[in-house]
Design brief:
The chain has a single domain, classed as Maf protein (Alpha-Beta Complex). Helix content is about 35%, strand content about 25%. Strands 1, 2, 3, 4, 5, 6 and 7 form a seven-stranded mixed beta sheet that branches. The N and C termini lie close together (about 10 Å).
C-alpha cells in the first residue's frame, strides 16, 4: 500500500505547533476559500467550513495519496459568533463584552482522503476574569488580538484574562489535538491501536 502524505490545510502557526505534538510528519498547504456556510448551527458551520477548506486543498494538490486535515475555530458569546476584530477599537469592544463572563469556543475538524470524508467538532467553555483597564490596554498594545477570533489568544498574554477552562485547552488554541488523534485512528480503521502502527500509513 502506497503511503499517504499528511497535509495540514492551514497556515496557522498555532495549528502547526499543535499538530506537531501528534508526532506525525506533515506538510502545510492552506486554502483561500471564503469561509461561508449556509448551515444553521455553530456545530454544523464549523464542520462545514473545515470540510470546505480540506476539500479545496485536496482538489488543488490533486494527488490521491494526500491526506488533508482542515479546521475552523470560532468564539461564541450569547449565541453570536465573534470574528477576528477589524481594528483595535473593535478588539477593545469584544474583550469588554467577554470580560467577567463565560463563552464557548468551537473547532470543526475535517479529514479528506481520496473519496472519504468525515468531520467532527469540539466545544470548550472559557470563563474570563474581569479585565482591568490597564491590563486591557497593555494587551491591545501588543497587537496580539488582531488576528484572533474573539480578539484574544489563550496561548499568549491573553492567558492573564482566563479564570477557567472547561474542556480541551488545545481546542481554544485552534486544534483539539487529543480528539484529532482519536478521530484519526477511527477514520483510518485503527481504533484501539496502542502500538502506533497507524502512523506507518504516512510517509
Amino acid at each position: 500500500m502506497k503511503k499517504m502524505t499528511f497535509i495540514l490545510g492551514s497556515k496557522s502557526p498555532r495549528r502547526k505547533e499543535l499538530l506537531g505534538a501528534s508526532f506525525i510528519d506533515f506538510k502545510i498547504h492552506s486554502s483561500d476559500i471564503e469561509e461561508n456556510s449556509t448551515l444553521l448551527s455553530v456545530e454544523e458551520k464549523v464542520q462545514d467550513i473545515a470540510l470546505q477548506k480540506a476539500v479545496a486543498v485536496y482538489q488543488t494538490l490533486n494527488n490521491t495519496t494526500n491526506f488533508i486535515l482542515g479546521a475552523d475555530t470560532v468564539v461564541v458569546l450569547d449565541g453570536k459568533t465573534l470574528e477576528k476584530p477589524a481594528d483595535i477599537t473593535e478588539a477593545r469592544k469584544m474583550l469588554l463584552r467577554l470580560s467577567g463572563r463565560s463563552h464557548e469556543v468551537y473547532t470543526g475538524v475535517a479529514f479528506v482522503r481520496a473519496e472519504q470524508r468525515t468531520s467532527f467538532f469540539v466545544k470548550t467553555v472559557v470563563t474570563f476574569h474581569h479585565i482591568t483597564e490597564d491590563l486591557l490596554e497593555l494587551y491591545l498594545a501588543t497587537g496580539d488580538s488582531l488576528d484572533k477570533a474573539g480578539a484574544y489568544g489563550i496561548q499568549g498574554q491573553g492567558l492573564s484574562f482566563i479564570k477557567e477552562v472547561l474542556g480541551s485547552y488545545s481546542n481554544v488554541v485552534g486544534l483539539p489535538i487529543d480528539q484529532v488523534i482519536i478521530e484519526l485512528k477511527k477514520f483510518l480503521g485503527y481504533t484501539g491501536d496502542e502500538s502506533g502502527s497507524w502512523r506507518e500509513l504516512f510517509e
